[in-house]
Amino acid sequence: MKDSSGRAQSPARPVEIKREESTKKGNRDGISTSTQREIPSRAAATLSSGKRKRSRPTRSRPAPSIIARPCFLIGHLLRVVLKGMHLDANSCLSPPLRHGTRSAIIDPINWKWRFPMKKKLSFFLAFLMILSMAGCTAGQPEEPPHVSKSNFMLDTYIEITLYDWTDASTIDLAFDEIRRLESLLSVEQTGSDLDRLAKAAGEEWVEISPETEEVLRLSKEYAALSEGYFDVTTGPLVSLWNIHNEQGHYPSQAELEQVLPLIDSDDLLVKEGHAFLARKGMVANLGAIAKGYIADQVKELLVAQGVEHAVLNLGRNILLIGDKQEGTAFTIGIQDPNEEEGVLADVVSATGKSIVTSGIDERYFTYQGKKYHHILDPYTGFPADTGLASVTILSDTSAQGDALSTTCFLLGIEKGMALVEQLDDVEALFITTEGELIPSSGYSNYQVQQ
Fold first, then answer.
1. What pLDDT score was predicted for residue 144?
2. What ranges do the domains of the chain cover?
3. CB-based contacts of 444: which residues, under 8 Å, 6+ apart?
4. Which end of the chain is more exposed for a tag (fewer CB within 10 A), N or C?
5. pLDDT per residue as tens digits for the range 363-376
6. How many CB atoms are closer than 10 A to CB 399?
7. What topology does CATH give the domain 146-445?
8. How far apart are CA 262 and CA 256, in angstroms?
């Protein structure tokens, strides 16, 4: 789905950070990063003694087997059992269990003739019990069940991951819901509510779905809240610039003068079940809010199915359901807009929240050596020049985060942050074109200390 006033739709990789230690400079292939330390091998360790030691060639060792890893535990338990049976453990085990060995072998030939049958049977049963205990405790902890699927929809890369869940068909239901809503809200789909609304502009009211009505009403609310900077009637302007896949059209002044008079949310009229664009040539494009609204509807669907822990990644719209199944918050990386994809500016930790980012690095093209991004100012007709490179919004709903990230970017640092501060349960991180990070007053409650 194309963005009408600045929402990014470029493919992006999931950004859940599955680690405890985060770095701002991540790997160059994606958002998720991890910090690793090299652990020196024993052969590389320096001997503290002044005596010259004979070096031995090193060789790689296979990973310990399930039985070998708890060999010390087995040996200790066997000795306890055998002591109770008045037997000498070392006389029955060949070779003896030694601390630090990779394997422990019990030689039945050496012990089976050394004590009576009754004690042999008791020993054998005790050994089987201990071996079964070792098998249960020695293995690595099993990864909690989860299922994940990805798709290319809404003109972006989408990935949905459900934790403590194994039924992949649940995600298929979510994809079906995305397709259904896109068929209503995308102006680019023939026969959609927005397509029919544009074709009837200046002529007649159009019957619309309850979902379309809800999004149009929300759009008008944010237009009023933003002094008109958030405006979904920028459809003609979006089409004029046509920024996509690092290609675009630099418009002439005459072209801008032709489309700017068509931009005015006051001329978008909504009544129950119907909408109307007052002038011919007007186009409503919901790209700056529809993706967030769709994410909220998908979350509602998944919760109704019983999902309690999930991450919905719709491009740079991240929506969380609950927390991780072990009770900890999800950790999400925020892209540095002044660096290449995968380099993080910051990391946040949240439960059940929406994290949405709009930035100059998501969709742009170069004309005569200058980059022009897709977040268009409805008053000038040009990409917004406010000194901001990106705005990230943390909120309860993705529709709110979607609309506010674009709105604050257009308003600029001072007015944008003032708007955030007056809203309940909303925090933000502004990143300037100079690389400065400007957080809202409560942003630190989510920030992961590094």
1. 75
2. 71-138, 146-445
3. none
4. C
5. 999 999 999 999 99
6. 26
7. T-fold (3.10.520)
8. 10
What does pTM read for this prediction?
0.70
| 380 against 114, higher pLDDT | 380
**What is residue 1's predicted lDDT score, i.e. its pLDDT?**
52
Higher pLDDT, 93 or 147: 147
The percentage of residues in the chain with a pLDDT greater than 90, rounded to a whole number, is 65
Identify the residue with better confidence: 120 or 203: 203
Task: Give every CB contact of residue 261 below 8 A, 6+ residues apart in sequence.
Answer: none
Structure-token match 């998720």, residue found = 32
